[in-house]
Amino acid sequence: MIHNLPPQRPVTARHLNLESELLDYLAEASCQPEADTRIPALGQLSSELHVSVSKLREQLEVARVMGLVSVRPRTGIHRQDYNFMSAVRLSLFFALASDITAFDEYSDLRKHVEMSFWHEAVARLTDEDKLRLRQLVALAWEKLRGSPIRIPHAEHREFHLTIFSRLDNVFVRGLLEAYWEAYEAVELNKYADLAYLSEVWSYHERITEDIIRGDVDSSLRAFEEHTKLLPSYHNEHRGNGAVK
Length: 244
Ligand SMILES: [Zn+2]
Fold this sequence. Notes:
Blueprint: H1 21-30, E1 38-39, H2 42-49, H3 53-65, E2 69-72, E3 76-79, H4 85-98, H5 102-123, H6 127-144, H7 153-163, H8 170-185, H9 194-213, H10 216-227, H11 233-238
Antiparallel strand pairs: 1-3, 2-3
Helix pairs in contact: 4-8, 5-8, 5-10, 6-7, 6-9, 9-10
The structure holds zinc ion.
Zinc ion binds next to helix 7 and helix 9.
């Protein structure tokens, strides 16, 4: 038996306890998107919210790390649009700093998230987005076939994020953006095995042409196959089938 179910009406922001007067203030301010994004100086906020300046400073640091405010010497403190990535990124980087093999688990999460939202994301792509995918593939081949060879990392990141760029879900996009931040942090963007890179970009080309042809199932299969090419940190650190 389930007791104490919440009433069937939306809970308003006021009922959520964020344990921070500043976060409460920011959450309320974000309900009025047309309002000025500038936040009063801490002294003024302190008397407005009845919280000490030093406590507000701590709360401001949390808000800054979460990407909810920008703090700059001349322009002051400004509210930012909500993003999920900043908080995920910090937690993920901490996990990786303690154990780099955790990248494999996050990579697996990313794969499943992309596969689950693949059809929905692809359905929203515009013709322009699809041409951008094709353009990124061409730019990548140019780099890989150039002399000297360059790693098309920026193109790789943009390629996958473009596929999800029209998905109206800030959490999915945040998880995926954090994946690419981590990918760079563990320096996979410097992984310069030409055979690997050529195979990866052949898959990207297949994904693009499948999407343009309207064969979304086939593009999804190509995506899934191409995730298996990624070197495994577990293997590398445990010495079985190591990839450098
Ligand atoms: Zn890829």
